[in-house]
Each structure stands twice: as C-alpha cells, then as structure tokens.
Write a structure and sequence with these properties.
- The protein is mainly alpha-helical.
- Helix content is about 60%, strand content about 0%.
- It contains 6 helices and no strands.
- The longest helix is centred in the middle third of the chain and has 12 residues.
Length: about 100
C-alpha cells in the first residue's frame, strides 16, 4: 500500500479545477485544485489564479494558495503588491512572501 497518491492535472478539465478551487465540489481539495490548475495550464494559469486571488468570496486558504502560485509570474507583481495591502492577514502575508 502506498502512502501517497499521484494525480495527473490532465485528468481534470479546466472547469472542474476552477469549480473545485472555488469549493463547489467535494471530490478535490480546493488548494490542491489551485496547484493542479497551475500545473495543467502553465503560463496560461496566470489569469485564473489572479481571479481566485482577488475574489473575496473564495476561501482565504484558496486565495493564499493562488497568491503563492502567482509568485512564478513576473506580470503578476502589480496584483501581488496590491494584495500585500489586503485587510485579510493571510492573503497579505502570502502576497508579501510571493514578492520576495
């Protein structure tokens, strides 16, 4: 028996991953969905990640995961700078970390 599971991002549609990230499904952890979304879409994931990061209706842990994934996108710096001033401490801390 294995202590881990391997998930292939290509096994999920973009819509499935976005829905899971928003907490609309129960079969996939929302933070994991964010990571799989980035792995699947690569550079094209920037816009969906920005949308998740700035959406105040999304769970703060999902926003945190999206913010940390945005660290790999140079064009997301302005968004990260703005999120570093967020009143949400978790999001602000993640954005500050991503800017380093």
């Amino acid at each position: 028996m294995s202590d881990y599971v391997t998930l292939d991002p290509q096994s999920f549609t973009d819509d499935e991953l976005l829905s899971a990230a928003r907490g609309e499904t129960t079969y996939l952890n929302p933070q994991l969905a964010v990571t799989l979304l980035r792995a699947k879409l690569g550079p094209s994931a920037e816009q969906p990640l920005v949308e998740l990061a700035i959406d105040e209706t999304v769970d703060q842990r999902v926003r945190q995961a999206a913010v940390l994934e945005l660290a790999g996108y140079a064009r997301a710096r302005d968004v990260l700078t703005e999120l570093a001033r967020s009143p949400n401490d978790i999001v602000a801390a993640a954005a500050a970390q991503a800017l380093r």
